[in-house]
Structures are given as C-alpha cells and as structure tokens.
Amino acid sequence: MSAGFLQSALAMEGVSKRFPGMLAVDRVDFDVMPGEVHALMGENGAGKSTLMRILTGSFDDYEGTIRIGGREARVHSPAAAKEQGIGMVYQELSLARPISIAENLLVGRLPVRWGGFIDRPQLLREARACLGLVGLDLDPLLTVGEISQHEAQLVEIAKVLGGQPCILILDEPTSSLSRDEVARLFQILRDLRNRGLAIVYISHHLPEIFEIADRVTVMRDGRRIATKEIHEVTPQSLVQMMVGRSIDEFYLRREAKVGATVLRAEGLTRYGFFHEVSFTLNAGEILGVAGLSGAGRTELARSLCGLDPLYAGRALLLDEPLIPNDYPRNAARGLVYLSEDRKVDGLFLRLPVSVNLLAGLRGRSGNGSVVQRCLDELAIASASPEVDAGTLSGGNQQKVLLGKWLATGPRVLILDEPTRGVDVGAKRKIHEAVMALADRGAAVLLISSDLPELAGLSDRAVVMRNGRLIGELSKAQLSEEALLLAANGHLEDCHAKA
C-alpha cells in the first residue's frame, strides 16, 4: 500500500441488506485506502456481490453508512455511484456485440458536434485513449462480436477506466484471460494503485490474491469474517475462513475404470481454428484438453458437438458418425456440451430452475423427482425450484447448468471451463458430480484453464497448441508444471521427467 494516504477512499460501516426471508448482508464493515488493492473473498452466496451492488447503487434500501473520501454518501442509484467515482467491472460482460468497440467504450458520453451529430474523429481519439489504458491496439471501429473473449474482457475494463473512477471494483476480471494477459492486467492495476486508485478485487483464484492484493477481507453467510494484511494469511487459512472448515486436498484423484472407446475423432479441421486433430475417448474416462488461450480448445469442442462448422475429418460416437453442424441430433444421441458462458448460451435466466433442469430432456418424461434429484445431488441452493435461474448465485447457476445435462444421462459430456468463477464449495460439488458420472461409465472431455483442476480430475490429457494437437500426457505425468510446460511447447520435458 502506498505510504502517505491516511483517509480511506471508501468506508462501509455496519452495512446490511435484507431480502424477503433472508439477511444477505449483516452489519458489514469494509474499507479501502487510496493506493490499495483490497481483495474481497468468499463462497458464492457469502454476500460479496450484494455488498458491491449496494456500493454501485443497485439497492437503495440498505442500512448502514457509506463514506467516500471521508464524506458520507447515499448511493441510491447506479448514476449516483458513477458521480461518486465508483466504477465496477462485472464478471459477465456488459458490452453490446453488434456495435463498435468505440461506441461501447463511450456509451452514455459519446462526443457530439454542432447539430447533435456524433463527432467521429473525437470518438476514435477517445476510444484509442481508453484502449491504451489496458494496452490494447485494436481498431475501434471493429464490433465487439469480431474480437476474442479475452479482448472483450479488456475492453470492458477500459470502458470503466474511461470514466476515471476513484474506486475501481473488479469481479473475477481474469476469468477469460491467458497467463500473459493476466500479467499485463496486473501491471495495469499496479500502475493504477501507484497513482492512488482504490481497487476492490473479487476473485476465487488464490494465487492471484497473493500476487496482487495488499489486504484481504473474507465474507461468509453475509458477515465479515476477517480482514487481514496479505502477509498474515496463507491459502489454507483463507479457504478455511471461506468455508468454515479445513480442506486438506481439494482436487481429488480417482482410479478410473476405463471401458471401450466411445468417441473417436479423426483429422478434425476448422481452418483458422484447429487442424488435423485426432484422439479417442473411452467409457468411464475423464480426458483433459490442455492448452493456452487461443490454442483452439473451445472451438474444437463446439465443432465436435455440432454447434460450429467442421470443414474436414469426422467424429464417431459408438462407431456411428456424428452429424456435422447439427447439435440437436448429436445431443439426442448422448453427446452434450456444457458451455463456457452459462449466461449467453447455457441457461434460460428468466425461467425457473426446474425448467432449466429439464430443458435437456427433449420431450422425454421429466418430473419433479428429476428436479429434486438434481437439487439434492448438486446441493443447489435455491429457495424454490420455481424461482428464476437468474436470481441464483454464479456457483448455483453453474450447478443448474451441469444438472441440466446430467439429467439426460449422457454418453459423452464435454465440459468447457466448468468451474470458472465459482467458489471452492461449488467447485468441489461439481468435481464430485463429474467423477460420479464417469464412475457410472460415461465419458468426459474436460477443457479447463485451472491447471490443478485439469491435473487432478483427468485420467490423461491431450495438449493443444496453435490449433494442433501436439501430444498426450499420461496420468502419471499429469501435474500443473507438466501441463504448463506442454502447453508452451515443451512436451519433451514432461516425458523426460516422468
């Protein structure tokens, strides 16, 4: 933390928020100093998001006091929050994909000239200045739909920074970023911290917290459990505070009972994304797909199941060819795909949890017993099966998405970042459900950027780099170090150490 700052940029004192039948935030004290990165941690449902939504003006019926720069402030609307210098980058992007990057960056403050027309040269100058804040060199006239997910994440951050906030809140900002992009983001945050910006950093990734944070506050069940200097805590103590119990070994290993080949990929190609990819997947097996951002893993999964085109090669399910570009028919045969973005193409957020859990059954008999079994087996925290899925926490939404496909009894389940942005408790429950599915004989294809997860769950892993499959790691070779070396093209080092 920078020396010389005495007055807190933000102080929340005794803040509470009650929903019908539930006290979501219970007399929480939380403060951030100028020139500080203050991490806010806790399981999904701990109250972090509600506390920050109070600060950003989503709720005006909170109790307690908020002080900004030492002065008491009533943050009664998002507009009031922005006026007070509060900016938040949400985990789920708020960008409009069909319009330009420039228009997204300056929405609500587009420069105009005489006659009310947009000043295009000024728009482009200001857009480029915003992009420069996060080190992006993109054409501002491109639409958001034309850029990658990780570029869109940085554009979202640039959009908020363009409003020149004095308090910046980041909610899981690295969920779509590669390691190099995370390093770039952290350098940006350090520069902002050195210039006196107060930063609230929400993340479930423990290594990030120890790399970037000065202090950490842990919440559980709507209460503040502790606030500590980062050097006073360890990963183990943070997890214990978050879940209220110690976890000696979070990433579980299993002894697979591998059966016959279920899925066979032969020379799969989608030009510009992946080329000549071949592998097999067996019953009862969890096959990891390792690779850095941009390696082609998600694109391969989407083409394999029929959501996106396949230009060459073929895939066979139980020796019968899958239908290219026809996901409904492939899903009906038992190959299903859990999307990396649950809110865009995973869940019906405005429909009940029960409807979402039964959505994959495609006309087969589904009733309350199926819903209740999913709720119980995945420990989905929902006041009722009839509440909208969008009202659940992120971790519970992810469990609903998994439950939707588990209810179909799939032969092959493709998981694309299945625990991105969820808390440790939800992650453990998802892991248990995936292992149980494999133990029942289903085959699982696991794509994950969480290296401990990939090493801990996979029975073996194939490695992709620049759109090509470059090799395979056996269970005995799997480790975080080996996966990272392999993804960077040093597969021979992994074999040498085995």
Explain this structure.
With 498 residues, the chain is of the alpha/beta class. It folds into two domains: 10-243, P-loop containing nucleotide triphosphate hydrolases (Rossmann fold, 3-Layer(aba) Sandwich), CATH 3.40.50.300; 261-497, 3-Layer(aba) Sandwich (Rossmann fold). The protein contains 18 helices and 20 strands. It has helices at residues 48-55, 78-83, 101-105, 120-132, 149-161, 179-194, 206-212, 235-243, 297-305, 327-332, 342-345, 353-358, 368-377, 394-406, 424-439, 451-457, 480-487, 491-497; strands at 10-19, 22-32, 36-41, 63-68, 71-73, 86-89, 167-171, 198-202, 215-220, 223-229, 261-270, 274-282, 286-290, 312-317, 320-321, 335-338, 412-416, 443-447, 460-465, 468-473. A six-stranded mixed sheet has the order 6-7-8-3-9-10, sandwiched between helices. Strands 16-17-18-13-19-20 form a six-stranded mixed sheet, sandwiched between helices. Strands 2-1-4-5 form a four-stranded antiparallel sheet, covered by helices on one side. α6 links the parallel β7 and β8. α14 (394-406) runs parallel beside α15 (424-439) and α17 packs antiparallel against α18 (491-497). The radius of gyration is 23 Å and the shape is globular.
Annotate the secondary structure layout:
Blueprint: E1 10-19, E2 22-32, E3 36-41, H1 48-55, E4 63-68, E5 71-73, H2 78-83, E6 86-89, H3 101-105, H4 120-132, H5 149-161, E7 167-171, H6 179-194, E8 198-202, H7 206-212, E9 215-220, E10 223-229, H8 235-243, E11 261-270, E12 274-282, E13 286-290, H9 297-305, E14 312-317, E15 320-321, H10 327-332, E16 335-338, H11 342-345, H12 353-358, H13 368-377, H14 394-406, E17 412-416, H15 424-439, E18 443-447, H16 451-457, E19 460-465, E20 468-473, H17 480-487, H18 491-497
Parallel strand pairs: 3-8, 3-9, 6-7, 7-8, 13-18, 13-19, 16-17, 17-18
Antiparallel strand pairs: 1-2, 1-4, 4-5, 9-10, 11-12, 11-14, 14-15, 19-20
